[in-house]
Structure formats: structure tokens, C-alpha cells
Amino acid sequence: MSAFKLPPVSDSQNGWGPVGLSSQFRDIPYAPYSKADKLGRIADWSAAEGTQGKDGRGAGGDQRGGRSGFRNFRDNYVPFGSNAANAFNYQHTEDEASFSVVDNRSTAQKKTTGFKSSSGQRGGRGGFRQQGQQRTQFQRLGANRGGFGGARQQQGGQRGGRRGYSNWRDFDRNQRVRDASVKVGSDWSMLEEIEFSRLNKLQFEVEEPEDIALYGAVGTYDKAYDRVNTKQEKILQQVDRERDNVTTSEDPILSNLASEPLAEGEQRVFATDTIIGVLMTAPRSVYPWDIVITKTDNKVIFDTREGSQLDYVSVNENSTDPPMDTGDKDNINSPSALSLEATYINTNFAAQVASSEQVVELENANPFYNPDEENVPLVGYRYRKFDLSTTEEENITLLVRTEVDAVVKSPQGEDTYITVKALNEFDSRAQGAGGAMEWRQKLDSQRGAVVATEMKNNSCKLSRWIVQTMLAGADHLKLGFVSRTNPKDASRHAILGTQICRPKEFATQMSLQITNGWGIVKTVVDLALKLPDGKYVLVKDPNKPVIRLYSVPKSSFEEAEEETEGAEPEAA
């Protein structure tokens, strides 16, 4: 058995470090060290095989050679003596810039390889183009089915962005500042401020209304317009029958009902279907609006101002990039010009599709025109009463003037009421088009995608039409698709097609809850009934999802109305 010989051990009494150097180490430079230097492991025998070394690519290891989920041990400590000198560090003297990879393949072959990669890598710009072509094929399949998924894919392909990413200028959208619909006076006092988030939580159910009276006359819908398509379009004609939207306080029927004495504990509210529709769809509105409220005793009247924006039809209000006012008066695609154009289209389309040869006279004559006048508009007015009471002690009734545009023969031979509205296309390439497709190319083959785009860009407008149809008790909503004959000319239009909708089914498709709308109306009515007698204004903030209630002097808006009436003869 061999004996163990202990090596010599030197003990330094002067400090930390070696006592002296032997002859074999005298020519080697010395790197001083201290107690703060860390002593690490020379080799990590516990690491998985193939993972040691910074260039290792072993199974379960990352690109740095460590274990999965851990950094390599050599990255976690400082080597012995590195704090003092770098005499032992490896000095790289080769210039790697002089080396290059020799590849005889052509550039086209390299790009093709990037295309065919199935791992989802981009493969250069050409890879983006290839992915865009693949997406277009899927969009066509989805859009042909008429589903909303296909419509979204179609819109995403038109934007030209990457899949899963929106346009890079999305941050700049909807950042423009709009003017209020009415100027808040210095003598106005704000009483209430309600956010849309609170309005969305309201719920209230209303029973079937009671019909009070029927006025006016309606034409029979011409079913020939159901056969209109992009290849057999019809020119939109200008009809001489002007249609006025008379406000509540100027309605003779509602004025007579307001003058009647009330029963004990009864409270009455008077409004038009336009005003109730605005309240029920308030959380979807983007553009500013205002409603004048007059409280007298136990009666509340909701009115619109002279020249109010509620008398006009908006265009692409809910689009991610709505039409923008550039300040150019000749711009036919500004929000105000498009609103006038849409109102003109709706008035003429409703009058054109209702045949004047087969007129159905209602119980009473039109209350706004004399029977002897010519060109009386064909429109029916249904005055209806809704019960807004929540308890037996309450007695709150809402009297609303609703409108119907035409009648249609049912399979049983009975006359059923319908409302007629029109969606309009101005220029699919213009700013504010909202990614809409060209109707003359897609309306017949991809009707579902076109309607889905309109539901997205005009959510508030379509919701109001649905609410007004349900308030009037009409069985169907007839939608028309009207487009400019020339995108640069806003005076000539053509009818490209029609579509009939059931209001309840359409509301479900748009996620429109009628009970939520009635909850908003109930809240505003209760708030108005608790106010002292006077005049108030409910204003939608032009740039925030908020409505505010102001108390205003009784003489407010009267001077503006007198000036408007006095200016009419001069304009004529």
C-alpha cells in the first residue's frame, strides 16, 4: 500500500496571497485578487449533455447553452481574477468581415423559399404579399356565405395590413374635435351628467301600446322595386312632395292632448318617434345632438330646435374613420354635405317606392296640410300611448307621434304597415368611406358583407330606424341601397336594390336591446318629472360619451327661431 505524502503548505503572515513564487512561475504575469473575487466552477457536470458551452444547441437547452428556463452558470458569476486584470482574456485577432458565405442560388430562389415556408415566417416582403393573397381567397369564401366573419375578413384585406394588426394610423382616428350642436350659454346651469356606461346598464319593459288615432294617407309599396339589382338599376327621381318633421309642441294633435285636463295623480309626456329613437339609441351616438325639455305642472314636452341635427340623416357616424370636415364648402364628402344628401335620398326614395295610384286613406286627414293643397306627402301618422308606470301608485303615460311610409298586402289580403329607409353610397375610395365595398360590384353577390359593413359604420342610424319601426307598430322595415351615378356628382343617384327586414330580428343581429332603450327613456322621463317648472336642454357632448342636462332661461331659442322665420322670405 502506497503512503500518502502531504504537499508543502505555505502560511503567509503578511496578508492574503501566495508567500512566494517558484522558479517555474516567475515568467508568467501575475493577476492580483482579493476576497471579493468570486470562485466559480470549472465545469458544470450537472448540466444536460450537449448544453455546455455558449454555442451549444442541445435538446432542452436554449440558444445560450443553458438549461431550459435557466441561464447558463457562466453568466451568473465573475471568473476568478477578472476584477483585477485582463491579461488572461482571449484576444480575437481575426477580422470576420473578410469572410462571406458562398451561395450559388439566385435571389428569386431565396424569395421563393421564404414563400413556401410552412412555419408562418414572413420570408421578406414577398412573404407578406403571398400571405395577403391567401387571405383574399378566404375572404371571398366567407363573404360569399353572407356571414359577418367573411365581411370582417373582407374589410381586413382591403385595409392591407397584417393579419391581427389594424392600420398603423388607428391612433390618429376619432381624435378630431367636433363642435357642439348648441352653444352652452353663460346663464345655463348644469343639473346632471350621465355617462353612456351608466345608460347601458338600464332596463325597463313596456307593454303593448294603445293606438289613439290615425292621420294622413299612405301609398301601396310597389313590389317592382324588389326586382331591382345592379344590372337593372332605377334612377332615383325627385319628388315634389316635401316632408316636414314637425316638432312636438307644434303638432296640433299633441297640443290638443296636452290641453286636456289630467286625472288625479296622472303625469303625461309628449314626444315624437324621432326624439324617442334618439334617447333609446343614445349610447351608440357619436355626433352631438340636443333635446329641449319643457316642464309645466305634471306635463313634460320633448322638442327639437329649429334646424336641429335630429332632422337630418347621418352618414358613417360609427365608422373608425368617419367623414372629416376640411373647411371646403365645395367638398361633397364632408359630414354636413353627406347628411343633406342622405336626407334628400331618404325623402325621395320613400315617396318613389310608394305608389300614388293605390293610396290608402287613414281615419283622419293629414294634420299638417289642408285637404285642398296639392302635393301632400303620402305618410301615415299613428299617435300611440305607452305606459311607463312601475307601480300601481304611478300613472305615467308617454304619447308619441309615430310614422309609417307605405302598406303591403299580407298573404291573408290585409294591409300591413311598413317603414321605408335608404342607405346611401357616396364614394368607396373617399376619406370616411369606412372600408365599404363598391356596391355595383358586390351588392348582388355579397349582400351579407355589404349589410355587415353598413351595420358597423351606421350602427346608430340603423338602430334608430329599427326603434322607430317598432314604435310605429310596423311589421317590416324596407331598406333601399342608393348610390351615386358618378362618385363625383352628389345630385344624381340610382337605386341598386332593396331588402326587407323584420325589426325584432334585425335588432337581435345588431345586439340592440329594446329594454335597455326603454330604460334610458324611463330614466330621462323620471328625471324630467322631478324638475321644477321651466325649460331645460339635454345635450350630448360632441367629443365624449356623456349627456348633460342644463337648466336654461325660458326665452332661450326663441330669438333664434324668430330670426330663422324672418330670414325665410329673404332667401326665397
UniProtKB/TrEMBL annotation:
Domain of life according to the entry: Eukaryota
Stretches with biased composition (Polar residues): 105-119
Molecular function per GO: mRNA cap binding; translation initiation factor activity
InterPro entries in the cross-refs: eIF3d (IPR007783)
Stretch list, region Disordered: 47-72, 105-168
One term under GO cellular component: eukaryotic translation initiation factor 3 complex, eIF3e
Biased composition (Low complexity): 130-143
Cellular localization per UniProt: Cytoplasm
Any one of the GO BP annotations: cap-dependent translational initiation
Pfam family, any one: eIF-3_zeta
UniProt-annotated stretches for the region RNA gate: 309-323
Membership in a protein family: Belongs to the eIF-3 subunit D family.
Free-text note regarding domains: The RNA gate region regulates mRNA cap recognition to prevent promiscuous mRNA-binding before assembly of eif3d into the full eukaryotic translation initiation factor 3 (eIF-3) complex.
Record's function text: mRNA cap-binding component of the eukaryotic translation initiation factor 3 (eIF-3) complex, which is involved in protein synthesis of a specialized repertoire of mRNAs and, together with other initiation factors, stimulates binding of mRNA and methionyl-tRNAi to the 40S ribosome. The eIF-3 complex specifically targets and initiates translation of a subset of mRNAs involved in cell proliferation. In the eIF-3 complex, eif3d specifically recognizes and binds the 7-methylguanosine cap of a subset of mRNAs.
PANTHER family (UniProt xref): EUKARYOTIC TRANSLATION INITIATION FACTOR 3 SUBUNIT 7, EUKARYOTIC TRANSLATION INITIATION FACTOR 3 SUBUNIT D
Name of the featured protein: Eukaryotic translation initiation factor 3 subunit D
Organism of this sequence: Lobosporangium transversale
